[in-house]
Input
Amino acid sequence: DVGKIVYMKNNIWNSYTKNELKSNLARQIISYKGNIIIAGSNGLGIISKSGTFSYFNSGNSKLYELLMRGVAVDKNDNIWLATYSCGAGRLKSALE
Output
């Protein structure tokens, strides 16, 4: 299966599937304050600590380039993105 995230919780393997993650090569995955942030080849996915999924791409955000190379979070909960050819970008406070 493509587009599936598999994780262990309470010693049980679980899976989480979203269409936006299909054919989306994960470049980096980080955990921050209970949120999971996925920098991919087609955009940025966030699974909040409550389980809500958000997906950001050029169609619903100001991301000019979708080919993410890396991701980091600053002390103000802003997500910083490193892209292949358009430099850095910032997503303001998208975390719970």
Notes: The beta strands are 4-9, 12-17, 26-32, 35-40, 44-47, 53-56, 68-73, 79-83, 88-91. The chain has no helices and nine strands.
